[in-house]
Amino acid sequence: MSHAIAVQVSDVTKTFPVKKGDGVTALDEVSLTVKAGEFVSLIGPSGCGKSTLLRLIADLDQPTSGAVTVFGKPAHQARLDQDYGIAFQSAGLLPWRTVEANIELPLQLHRVPAATRRARVAELMALVGLSDFAANFPDQLSGGMQQRVAIARSLAESPELLLMDEPFGALDEMTRERMQTELVRICAETGAAVVFVTHSIPEAVFLSDRVVVMSPRPGRIREIVDVALGEKRGETLREEDSFFEGVTRVREALHGAPTETRPDNAVRGVDLR
Ligand SMILES: Nc1ncnc2c1ncn2[C@@H]1O[C@H](COP(=O)(O)OP(=O)(O)OP(=O)(O)O)[C@@H](O)[C@H]1O
């Protein structure tokens, strides 16, 4: 499955019917290409179509017009072939299964032999730093740990694509930053492409190669900001000038106009959420 393009969204329009009128245009002729191994975030005000776009890529809903392909296949086929892992905001773990058994679930469903399963689950628990919690149940874990279980589960079948809708939205700021750093590490290790929905500018800048800035009514791509802080992504990146420059560029793209000239370090005063 070594296709150079992970996701291709071509001229996609999505309208939802409403009782009166022409319907809501959640997405209006949106086109986007995500390369294999690339980290792309979707950001924009509420209602601009971020989740709709992600759901169309995951084949959880279908475009009104236009096409979505995943690794060169129609989205529907990619879903049948389980070509990607999904992690959405609420961790979605099964409360009656242990950490280990939750991570193991997709492998069980696909009848992976028990020995292979055990080895893979051990590897995944180490990857997300939960080896000591294998036998715990989700309600015995913190929110951040539950989120890590969900991420481990989404990685179980080594997908070359991860679709994530605000996976860290419910976490406190410290846990969130730690999870971001871990996700960067996991992506570097697995080479997975990611499409990541977020409301947080710094989160998008920290994680992404490119940040897709969307605008609502109708949902469109306003601008794509190349961030590509690449190798620098690590604990100290959040204190570096290149990070603040990225934050400023995404803010300007979101607000549609350049912010007024100000001393270089004044940008540190931006709302970092
Ligand atoms: N199933 C649906 N039926 C009707 N309208 C919908 C449906 N899903 C989404 N919409 C509408 O489509 C538009 C885009 O919604 P979407 O959830 O994709 O936005 P979003 O950018 O993810 O928003 P948020 O940041 O608030 O999560 C909104 O106007 C929303 O009301």
Topology at a glance:
Layout: E1 5-16, E2 24-35, E3 39-43, H1 50-57, E4 65-70, E5 73-74, H2 75-80, E6 85-88, H3 99-109, H4 114-127, H5 143-154, E7 161-165, H6 173-190, E8 193-197, H7 201-207, E9 210-215, E10 220-226, H8 241-255
Helix pairs in contact: 3-4, 3-5, 7-8
Organism: Marisediminicola antarctica
GO molecular function: ATP binding; ATP hydrolysis activity
Protein name: Nitrate ABC transporter ATP-binding protein
What does this 3D model show about the protein?
- One of its GO terms (molecular function) is ATP hydrolysis activity.
- Residues 7-241 form the ABC transporter domain.
- Keywords: ATP-binding, Nucleotide-binding, Transport.
- This is Nitrate ABC transporter ATP-binding protein.
- The chain has 273 residues and is α/β, with parallel strands linked by helices.
- It has two domains: 5-84 and 160-268, Rossmann fold (3-Layer(aba) Sandwich), CATH 3.40.50; 92-158, no CATH class.
- It contains eight helices and ten strands.
- The longest helix has 18 residues, at 173-190.
- The structure holds adenosine-5'-triphosphate (ATP).
- Adenosine-5'-triphosphate is lined by residues 16, 24, 26, 44, 46-52, 219.
Question: What's this, in brief?
Answer:
The protein is α/β, with parallel strands linked by helices. It has helices at residues 50-57, 75-80, 99-109, 114-127, 143-154, 173-190, 201-207, 241-255, and strands at 5-16, 24-35, 39-43, 65-70, 73-74, 85-88, 161-165, 193-197, 210-215, 220-226.
Number of H/I helices? 8
Strands of the widest sheet, in order across it, are: 6-7-8-3-9-10
Please identify which CATH superfamily of the largest domain we are dealing with.
Answer: P-loop containing nucleotide triphosphate hydrolases
The helix-strand sequence is EEEHEEHEHHHEHEHEEH
| N-C termini distance | 37 Å
CATH class of the largest domain: Alpha Beta
Which parts are unreliable, with pLDDT below 50 for 5 consecutive residues or more? 261-273
Rg to the nearest angstrom?
A: 19 Å
Strand runs, count: 10
Major beta-sheet overview: 6 strands, mixed
Mean pLDDT: 87
Strand content: 15-25%
Q: The CATH topology of the largest domain, please?
A: Rossmann fold
Protein name: Nitrate ABC transporter ATP-binding protein
Keywords: ATP-binding, Nucleotide-binding, Transport
Pfam families: ABC_tran
InterPro entries: AAA+_ATPase, ABC_transporter-like_ATP-bd, ABC_transporter-like_CS, ABC_transporter_ATP-bind, P-loop_NTPase
